[in-house]
Amino acid sequence: MLLDRPGLFARVNGRSARRRLAPVESPSLTLVLPAYNEAERIGPALDELFGYLDRGGTHARDGAPGSADLPAIDVMVVDDGSTDGTADIVRARPEASDGRLAVLIVPHGGKGAAVRAGMLAATGDLVIFADADMATPPDQIPLLVEALSSTDVALGSRIQPDGSDMRKSQPSYRRMLGKVFHAMASVWAVGPVKDTQCGFKGFSRAAAQDLFSRQQILSIVFDVELIFLARKRGYEMAIVPIRWADKRGSRMRARPALALRVAWDLFRIPLIHRRVARRGEPATLAEPPAPR
Q1: For the chain, which has fewer Cβ within 10 Å, the N-terminal or C-terminal residue?
Q2: 43 three-state secondary structure
Q3: How far apart are CA 74 and CA 106, in angstroms?
Q4: What one-character DSSP code corresponds to residue 237?
Q5: C-alpha distance from residue 52 to each of 44, 45, 65, 157 (Å)
Q6: CA count, 13 A, side-chain hemisphere, 189
Q7: Could you tell me if 161 and 82 are in contact, meaning their C-beta atoms sit under 8 angstroms apart?
Q8: H helices then E strands: how many in the chain?
Q9: Whole-model pTM?
Q10: Contacts with 223 (C-beta within 8 Å, 6 or more apart), sequence order
């Protein structure tokens, strides 16, 4: 069910409303940035991120919120087995010396695997993952934090309240593939969530531990799996319109093998999680363990 909300965001419920997890009074935040061979872009991206965080203030560019009211933030770059020195660049930054920046190195397994590793390792009361190229600018972080003050899952959306779509800057073939993908995903797994693939999502730590520990899809379809799991577990989700810009340099190439894997992963999501129970309800059969 999609509920219109005035102002910042809309909410998507599971089959019935449930009480959210207990809020924390002084939350901390971990920002997870998955990265694979990002030596050329990770430095400027972190400059932009920490420049925003260090400026403080209540207002940023174009009326976006400033960072003054954000909770204490630590940033975790998850290096997905890069071979170009991405991790070394991160370690050499001054923020790594003062404890605000860490790097987690994992074997190369794709974005889904890197995001899962970072979200499960995060220690903040709130956990957000974002694309390492800052396609979503850091001044959008307060929007997810505000949404997470009243819900446990907040999904960034490139679709604006007036219906305009920030994805129009993408190449036409990617927009076409995205429409086909969404048509399949909405029928089979995610319901009314219109932008499943926005790489900007936030969770309370308890919700992140619950959902990412169950994640089994490692391809680009992992976002759909998380939304499916959140709905099945009964979490209320906030849909948060955000600013976004397409950053050239994506390594995703539309090939037949990728299309087949996407279709297969979409098909199997409801099947592999058919035994997952709503929170507070026992599973009828043991759930298959998440891969490690």
Answers
A1: C
A2: helix
A3: 19
A4: E
A5: 12, 11, 10, 21
A6: 29
A7: no
A8: 9, 9
A9: 0.84
A10: 196, 197, 198, 199, 201
- What is the CB neighbour count within 10 angstroms for residue 59? 11
C-alpha separations of 279 from 34, 110, 120 in Å: 29, 29, 19
Give pLDDT tens digits along the chain (292 positions): 333 333 455 666 544 334 444 444 568 999 999 999 999 999 999 999 999 999 998 888 778 899 999 999 999 999 999 999 999 999 999 999 999 999 999 999 999 999 999 999 999 999 999 999 999 999 999 999 999 999 999 999 998 888 777 656 555 655 566 566 566 666 556 677 888 889 999 999 999 999 999 999 998 899 999 999 999 999 999 999 999 988 765 555 556 777 788 888 988 999 999 999 999 876 554 455 555 5
- Full DSSP string of 138-165: GGGHHHHHHHTTT-SEEEEESB-TTS-B
User: Looking at this protein, which amino acid is placed at residue 166?
Assistant: M
Which tokens is 186 given?
A: 């909405």
Q: Which residues contact 114 (CB under 8 A, 6 or more apart)?
A: 34, 35, 36, 78, 79, 80, 106
| Cα dihedral value 85, 90, 91, 97, nearest 10 | 170
Rounded-to-integer distance, Cα 136 and Cα 156, Å: 9
Centroid of chain to Cα 252: 18
Decide: 175 and 168 in contact? Cβ < 8 Å. yes
DSSP character at residue 169:
G
In three-state secondary structure terms, 239 is strand
H-assigned helices in 136-252: 141-147, 172-185, 205-212, 222-233
User: What are the structure tokens assigned to 199, written together?
Assistant: 């790489």
